[in-house]
C-alpha cells in the first residue's frame, strides 16, 4: 500500500527494534500514533505491551484490523480510527510513535496536556533540534519554551531518509520526552502558555512591545500593571533571550501574582 500524504512508513527493522526497546513496555498501555502498516505495532506487542493505535487513514485501519485480528480479539491491541489531534484517546501510560511531521507540534502539545510517564517519539530532525534549543540561540521558540518547561528531552537516535518508504527529504530524530514539574512556580498554566505564544508571535519586538501587542489575549489593565512591575532590563529584551524563569515571572505578573 502506498503511504498517505505526509506519512512515511518506517521500514528499517534495526531502527524499529531500537525504538521499541528504548523504554520498558511489557505490561504497559502504550499509545502509538500513526501505526501505518504496523511494523512498530508488532514490535511493541512482541515485547508484551498493550497497544492503543490511533490511525487517521481508513484504508490503513482496515489493513491493520486484518493483520492484527488475533491481537484485537485478545484485547492486546485497540485501533482508534481518527485524527490524533482531536479524537478521544483511551487511557495510556507510555507513548511510542513516529509522528506525522506536519502536525508534530500540535500532537506534542496535546500529549503534554493529557500527560504520560515517558514518550519515545520520532520527529523531523530540525523540529527536534528546536525542541531542545537553549535560550539565546536562533532555534529557540514557543516549542522550545513550552516543552522544556514541562519535560526533559533527550535525543536517542538519528535516522536517514533510507529508513522510510517513501523516503522523506530530511533526517529524523528519535527522542525521549519525560514530563516533569516546571522548574519555577507558575501561577496559571494557561496564562503562561498565552504569554509564550504572544511573545513569540512578535519575536522581533521587545518584551514591552510584545506584551502590548497581546491586547486581544490580555486586558490592557493587566498588561500595563505587569509592565510596571517587571524589571526594565527584561522589558527591553526579546523573547529568544529569556530564560524559563523569566517567562514564568512575566506570566505570574499578568496573573496578578
From TrEMBL:
Any coiled-coil regions, as ranges: none
Swiss-Prot/TrEMBL keywords: Cytoplasm, Methyltransferase, RNA-binding, rRNA processing, S-adenosyl-L-methionine, Transferase
A GO molecular-function annotation: rRNA (adenine-N6,N6-)-dimethyltransferase activity
Subcellular location: Cytoplasm
A Pfam family assignment: RrnaAD
Main location (coarse class): cytoplasm
Protein's UniProt keywords contain Transferase: yes
UniProt EC number: 2.1.1.-
Domain Ribosomal RNA adenine methylase transferase N-terminal as annotated: residue spans: 15-181
InterPro entries on file: KsgA/Erm, rRNA_Ade_diMease-like_C, rRNA_Ade_Mease_Trfase_CS, rRNA_Ade_methylase_Trfase_N, rRNA_adenine_dimethylase, SAM-dependent_MTases_sf
Top-level EC class as recorded in UniProt: transferase
Domain of life per record: Archaea
Recorded GO CC terms: cytoplasm
Residues holding S-adenosyl-L-methionine: 8, 10, 34, 55, 83, 98
Entry-linked PANTHER family: DIMETHYLADENOSINE TRANSFERASE (PTHR11727), DIMETHYLADENOSINE TRANSFERASE-RELATED (PTHR11727:SF7)
Family listed: Belongs to the class I-like SAM-binding methyltransferase superfamily. rRNA adenine N(6)-methyltransferase family. RsmA subfamily.
Primary role: Specifically dimethylates two adjacent adenosines in the loop of a conserved hairpin near the 3'-end of 16S rRNA in the 30S particle. May play a critical role in biogenesis of 30S subunits.
This protein's name: Probable ribosomal RNA small subunit methyltransferase A
Species in which this protein is naturally found: Methanoculleus formosensis
Organism taxonomic ancestry: Archaea, Methanobacteriati, Methanobacteriota, Stenosarchaea group, Methanomicrobia
Amino acid at each position: 500500500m502506498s503511504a498517505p500524504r505526509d506519512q512515511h512508513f518506517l521500514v528499517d527493522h534495526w531502527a524499529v527494534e531500537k525504538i521499541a526497546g528504548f523504554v520498558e513496555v511489557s505490561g504497559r498501555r502504550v499509545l502509538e500514533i500513526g501505526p501505518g502498516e504496523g511494523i512498530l505495532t508488532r514490535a511493541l506487542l512482541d515485547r508484551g505491551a498493550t497497544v492503543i493505535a490511533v490511525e487517521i487513514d481508513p484504508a490503513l485501519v482496515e489493513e491493520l484490523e486484518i493483520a492484527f485480528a488475533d491481537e484485537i480479539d485478545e484485547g492486546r491491541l485497540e485501533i482508534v480510527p481518527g485524527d490524533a489531534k482531536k479524537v478521544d484517546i483511551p487511557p495510556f501510560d507510555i507513548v511510542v510513535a513516529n509522528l506525522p511531521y506536519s502536525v508534530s507540534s500540535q500532537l506534542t502539545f496535546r500529549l503534554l496536556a493529557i500527560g504520560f510517564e515517558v514518550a519515545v517519539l520520532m520527529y523531523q530532525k530540525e523540529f527536534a533540534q528546536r525542541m531542545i534549543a537553549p535560550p539565546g540561540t536562533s532555534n529557540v521558540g514557543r516549542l522550545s519554551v513550552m516543552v522544556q518547561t514541562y519535560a526533559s528531552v533527550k535525543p536517542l537516535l538519528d535516522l536517514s531518509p533510507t529508513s522510510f518508504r517513501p523516503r522523506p527529504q530530511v533526517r529524523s530524530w528519535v527522542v525521549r520526552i519525560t514530563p516533569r514539574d516546571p522548574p519555577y512556580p507558575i501561577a496559571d498554566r494557561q496564562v503562561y502558555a498565552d504569554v509564550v505564544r504572544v511573545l513569540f508571535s512578535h519575536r522581533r519586538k521587545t518584551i514591552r512591545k510584545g506584551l502590548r501587542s497581546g491586547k486581544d489575549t490580555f486586558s490592557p489593565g493587566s498588561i500595563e500593571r505587569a509592565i510596571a512591575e517587571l524589571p526594565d532590563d527584561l522589558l527591553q529584551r526579546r523573547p529568544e533571550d529569556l530564560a524559563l524563569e523569566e517567562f514564568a515571572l512575566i506570566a505570574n505578573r499578568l496573573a496578578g501574582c
